[in-house]
Automatic annotation (TrEMBL):
Signal peptide (from-to): none
Family annotation (Pfam families): HTH_1, LysR_substrate
Name of protein: LysR family transcriptional regulator
Annotated ranges, domain HTH lysR-type: 1-57
Family the UniProt entry places it in: Belongs to the LysR transcriptional regulatory family.
Organism: Thiospirochaeta perfilievii
Key words of the record: DNA-binding, Transcription, Transcription regulation
Gene3D superfamilies xref list: 3.40.190.290, Winged helix-like DNA-binding domain superfamily/Winged helix DNA-binding domain
Top-rank taxon, per record: Bacteria
GO MF annotation list: DNA-binding transcription factor activity; transcription cis-regulatory region binding
SUPFAM superfamilies: Periplasmic binding protein-like II, Winged helix' DNA-binding domain
Length: 302
């Protein structure tokens, strides 16, 4: 039995697809099928019922647990005893929501790659909701999000603290109270909001609900899918928006955007590294998680 075949089996199960597993492992689909059949022949059992879906047999479910344990132990063995551990190389694929991707991962990866400079990375930016879906479905083992959800087998590490503020152009701010704005005045502003899936607006929406309001009570001027576009709209005087302070720190320091807190509204939040506790992690993924567990608190702000 080759442990690489166990890895193939795990990816097929996690991704619920032979073709997706083939793409991820850089193999052909016939090669994936051949490896699964080889495992079934070696052990004299059927692991997968071949229909339109990936359905594990009773033996297949047990086999998956053992395969995951074996590969995790193999990674631990290499991590502890391999003389080449310092020369760890390979690719780290990171799914991240907009905030950490745009304003945190540069620092995090720079620090990590200083210790492991033979590792390459690929950042795939999406929204927080999608990051959770990809971790749960097995597309990836971990990701970065702007919200924390209570999901089975998903753990999180707080990476950064953040505060949501009302962001408006410095010119527009001259006509409003300095430092803080009331909810009544807030509802009179022309708003540019992020589309569904944004952790920023989910946090804001929940805060509004606590005050018996919804997003429908806002004067919505436009809906945008990107923070940088929102900032440009704000600077042009098109409207205002609730934004992460981390995301507008540069513009605040340059005197272009003025942040206002919203009276009687708790808009503190955190950025998280989330990971699946029941999935097989590669040695690189393990090293990255260990790095964040040890040094992640150094990125906390506010």
């Amino acid at each position: 039995m080759k442990t690489s075949y166990l890895r193939t089996f795990i990816e097929v199960v996690n991704l619920q697809s032979f073709s997706k597993a083939a793409d991820k492992l850089c193999l052909t689909q016939p090669a994936i099928t051949k490896q699964i059949k080889s495992l079934e022949k070696d052990f004299g059992i059927v692991l997968i019922i071949r229909t339109n879906d990936i359905i594990l047999t009773k033996e297949g479910k047990e086999f998956y647990k053992y395969a995951t344990t074996i590969l995790n132990k193999e990674e631990e063995l290499y991590a502890k005893f391999s003389k080449n551990n310092r020369d760890l190389s390979g690719k780290l694929t990171i799914y991240s929501s907009s905030l950490p991707a745009n304003y945190l991962l540069d620092k995090i990866l720079s620090d990590f790659l200083d210790k492991h400079n033979n590792i390459n990375f690929h950042i795939k930016k999406t929204d927080s909701k999608d990051v959770y879906e990809k971790v749960i479905s097995g597309v990836t083992n971990f990701g970065f999000t702007g919200m924390k959800l209570n999901k089975p087998n998903i753990e999180s590490i707080e990476i950064s603290k953040d505060q949501l503020v009302l962001a408006l152009s410095t010119q527009r701010a001259t006509s409003l109270p300095q430092g803080e704005i009331s909810i009544k005045t807030l509802l009179e502003q022309d708003f540019i909001i992020r589309e569904n899936g944004s952790a920023t607006f989910k946090t804001f929406e929940e805060a509004l609900k606590k005050k018996n309001y919804t997003l429908n009570n806002l004067k919505i001027k436009g809906i945008v899918g990107d923070n940088e576009i929102i900032k440009k709209m704000i600077l042009r005087g098109v409207g205002v928006s609730v934004m992460s302070r981390l995301s507008i720190e540069k513009e605040i320091n340059e005197g272009l955007i003025t942040p206002l807190t919203i009276k009687d509204m708790d808009l503190q939040r955190s950025v998280y590294y989330i990971y699946h506790t029941k999935k097989y992690f590669t040695q690189i993924e393990n090293k990255f998680r260990e790095f964040l567990q040890k040094d992640g608190s150094t990125y906390l702000k506010y």
